[in-house]
């Protein structure tokens, strides 16, 4: 039978992320990052819903301010540009109201994860892990190799 589910399933089966080589490599969803043109307004939105919201923290190496909304089982990371060369500024130029920027998935061993994804032909942004907003090593995977989604891997 020809239906949308079977089309989606077969399309995904041909993508690198659906291979068994990543089985056991990927852990839980750490956060979904949202680029925000107004960080105070975005923070207030989640505070008004009763969420535990952190203060804004500058991440100079990454060119962003981050705010974390703790949801218990996961987080939302609010991002706002820091400096003229911020990748978030470029994102907001194209998406004036903001929007989902990336997803972050935990891995047990970041170096093994980098080696595995590269062996599968998945491009990384940068050659090695950098320290991310949680003080842990992270690396980003190219969205063109990840179903159109910028994906961050973070050492658990």
UniProtKB/TrEMBL annotation:
Stored CDD domains: MMCE
UniProt key word Isomerase: yes
InterPro entries cross-referenced by the UniProt entry: Glyas_Bleomycin-R_OHBP_Dase, MeMalonyl-CoA_epimerase, MMCE/EMCE_epimerase, VOC_core
EC number: 5.1.99.1
Alphabetical keyword list: Cobalt, Isomerase, Metal-binding
Domain of life: Eukaryota
Reactions accelerated catalytically: (R)-methylmalonyl-CoA = (S)-methylmalonyl-CoA
GO MF term list: metal ion binding; methylmalonyl-CoA epimerase activity
Pfam families found in the cross-reference section: Glyoxalase_4
Record-linked Gene3D superfamilies: 2,3-Dihydroxybiphenyl 1,2-Dioxygenase, domain 1 (3.10.180.10)
A GO CC term assigned to this protein in UniProt: mitochondrion
One GO-annotated biological process of the protein: L-methylmalonyl-CoA metabolic process
Residue ranges occupied by any VOC domain in the UniProt entry: 28-156
Family the entry assigns: Belongs to the methylmalonyl-CoA epimerase family.
Function: Methylmalonyl-CoA epimerase involved in propionyl-CoA metabolism.
Name of protein: Methylmalonyl-CoA epimerase, mitochondrial
Organism the protein comes from: Panagrolaimus davidi
Organism placement in taxonomy: Eukaryota, Metazoa, Ecdysozoa, Nematoda, Chromadorea
